[in-house]
Amino acid sequence: MSTVSETPAIGLTHGGSEDTGLGQRGPQSKSIVVPYGFWLFVLSDMVLFSALFASYASLVHATDGGPTTAELFDRKLVAVETLALLLSSFVCGLAMITAKRKSMAWMQIWLLATGALGLVFLGIELFEFSKMIGEGAGPQRSAFLSSFFTLVGCHGAHVTAGLLWLGTMMAQIWAKGFRQDIVRRLLCFSVFWHALDIIWVAIFTIVYLIGTLP
Amino acid sequence: MFGRLTWDAIPFHEPIPLITSAVVLLAIASLGIWITKNKWWSYLWNEYVTSTDHKKIGIMYIVMALVMLVRGFADAIMMRAQQSLAIGASQGYLPPEHYNQIFSAHGTIMIFFVAMPFIIGFMNFVVPLQLGVRDVAFPTLNNVSFWLNASGALLINLSLFIGEFARTGWLGFPPLSEKAFSPGVGVDYYLVALQISGVGTVLTGVNFVTTILKIRAPGMSYLRMPVFCWTALASNLLIIAAFPVLTVVLAELMLDRYLGFHFFTNDGGGNSMLYMNLIWVWGHPEVYILVLPAFGIYSEVASTFSGKPLFGYRSMVFATLAICLISFMVWLHHFFTMGAGGDINAVFGIASMIIGIPTGVKIYNWLFTMYGGRVRFTVPVHYLIGFMLTFVIGGLTGVLLAIPPVDFVVHNSLFLVAHFHQVIIGGVVFALMAGYTYWFPKAFGFTLDERIGKWIFWCWFIGFHLAFMPLYVLGFWGATRRMQHIPDPTWAPWLHVAFVGAAIIGIGIALTVVQLLYSIKTRDQRRDVTGDPWDGRTLEWLTLSPPPHYNFAVLPDVHGEEAYWVRKQTAIKQDQLIEEPDYQPIEMPLNTPTGVIVAFFAAVCGFALIWYIWWLAILGLIGAFGIFVWYAWRDEHEHIIPVEEVRANARERRRIRMEHLHNLSQST
């Protein structure tokens, strides 16, 4: 995003006379500050997930005589699920490119596809959850299952929140066009959406792959 | 319809909470009437509640912290009274289930709703001014953070009138805090209140790290930032890295309690050691989240009132960041006795002692800053010296506790209680009082009464030592913490001394109110007309007291460390100010009710969760989401302050500064 035509962030811009050579030319523009702050938020979210991973890792064998990872997880189903989410991220990237070109129709289509793939992911996850609960392997069964449902469910909750955000963003851009602050917001959304992918890759590896090792 | 909320939740048969409730409600009602009578509601709404001004938000944080300090102290004096009465045959006046709520509430309130908002309040007020800018990175988010914190505080206070509070201690260890052993609403109040305020705190962390790293005046390179900004940066980095873990561990306990999960239960494979680890992975950095900015305050005070640059500025920065890092590697020392084994205990014991090294560096830096300086013995300097005396002893008892064999002897005893109160009161609270005195004139345009301020200091200093030194002795004798009844009558004299100490601290807190009222009444005698009442060295003293909404008409150019000092000395030498700059209109963020409305819905949702009123909880969530969308939809984010207004204000300020500098250059 270009910073040239940026309106001053909360009255902060000011041409300083002294440049110390370390980039201290005064406050950065909003197009730097906003995504930077959002990245920090995403980092805090990563810390949140790392605590959930730690819980899972320390409880994964605490099955209390109930089903274990190998008995519960279906690699093929998860592979489809993973594909849906990764594709969704790719399509989200396409939407960002079209947003840069300010082509409203294509961007809305790609965003719609992003959301649809996200819904597919969520649908499969809910199917998996309901199947497990139906088999008596709900989160109340054992500490392992508690931590599994919490870790994966927390990711799912993030995806759900992302879908809500996505819907709001689509409506907003439709109504207000490519305004600078809205495009910035869209950039933050894509950061969020990609971050959820990174977390999912970790879940896929640590929970499903390792859990179904022979 | 109302879940488990019935009339039984109101403590009609318990006189202490009932009378307290009545008094508090009466106080709130009369405050409301007073505000209505003076027609101050719209002023409060426009100037404070909906304000996105970092200074106003900072003031609101500190007001909240002071109010909660009174609440937390009431708990403290009740505990000390109980322990000095319930000795031998006497059972005192507090039954065990009430006593347990009081010590849990005391810890929770003092850490989360006194120390945290006080520190965050200072960061809000001071950091943008010291960086020479006009606001934080995300002003609206800042307002949201405050109100989320406030709704957490509201819920904690509500537990006094409706239902009960946790009886599990300030960290709610399972399995005691599990549904099976704590079926009431107490733990739920604790969990929900901390979750809501925790979200606010994480957002604050994000906001301030962004501000400090991305929004500074031109020329303000990292190694020119005042030490308070460095400590604020370290503290907020810790918030980002530690608070999400608290969110997770409390959420897991909530899942256990609400949905029958098995994270920490005794059955189903649950593991309560997981809770211990996670809560302390947050809990230990939390100590440094509080104490690092406190160190920053001492640094400002030491250098200003010694009339010297801070000794060893770079080593101070390095020590701050070293503490920031090491504080994540010591959490296990909070449970040496819980079976981690000798090797692990040794590693964490050594790491804990290593933290003493950068802290020691800081102590020497403050000492050398004062050495050879022209020290003015103002109230903040009293706190600085009192801190150095007290904190060193507290640090040494900490090093003792970091030795696992010693910890096995004195863990969970009053020795521990004395240790952490010594570092938190001697370290954090003294800094808060010093900062309160130091920055008060910047916020309100007049200084606090110096004489009463010194009385307050002596109350805290003497009161603290009387209240907590006996606890070291008792701890050595084997007195465990959290005892509702004292079986050994030979402990009585020490407990009585401790009560007297707490009472003296109480006088200090009362005098703080007196000081405030007296200072307001006599403010005309102590006006700070220059904006620089202490002959300061950092940029907050460059602007007027109180500063205009936009802080600086033109962002200052920073040349070298001690941005303001250099500028002031140059101006004194040349007997003139820098050339009048070209003023521009200033864009500032609009006020917004978003924060207070979101927090309202969060509080409603939290209250509904506590009492199992599910429909209301869902309504609260929908409301909170709705307000976000509404906020995102608005088109106007900023308003323009016209250049005429900026220029007029700036010219007036220049006139005042010129006079001031003239006086200064004549006196030197």
Biggest sheet architecture of chain B: 2 strands, antiparallel
- Major beta sheet of chain A, specifics? none
How many domain units of chain B?
A: 2
Low-pLDDT parts of chain A are 1-23
Low-confidence stretches of chain B: none
Query: Percent range for helical residues of chain B?
Result: 55-70%
Here the CATH topology of chain A equals Four Helix Bundle (Hemerythrin (Met), subunit A)
Cα shape of chain B? globular
Cα(first) to Cα(last) distance of chain B is: 75 Å
CATH class label of the largest domain in chain B = Mainly Alpha
Query: How many strand segments of chain B?
Result: 2
How many structural domains does the protein architecture of chain A include? 1
Query: Could you give the order of strands across the largest sheet of chain B?
Result: 1-2
What number is the mean pLDDT of chain B? 93
Characterize the structure shown.
- The complex is a heterodimer of chains A (214) and B (668).
- Chain A is mainly α and 214 residues long.
- Chain A has a single domain (26-61, 68-211), classed as Up-down Bundle (Four Helix Bundle (Hemerythrin (Met), subunit A)), CATH 1.20.120.80.
- Chain A is built from six helices and no strands.
- In chain A, α3 (75-100) packs antiparallel against α4.
- Chain A is elongated, with a radius of gyration of 21 Å.
- Chain A starts with 29 loop residues before the first helix and ends with a helix.
- Chain B is mainly α and 668 residues long.
- Chain B folds into two domains: 1-39; 40-590 and 636-667, Cytochrome C Oxidase, Chain A, CATH 1.20.210.10.
- Chain B is built from 19 helices and two strands.
- A two-stranded antiparallel sheet of chain B has the order 1-2.
- In chain B, α4 crosses α13 and α8 packs parallel to α10 (342-370).
- The longest helix of chain B has 36 residues, at 96-131.
- The mean pLDDT of chain B is 93.
- The interface between A and B is large, with 56 and 69 residues.
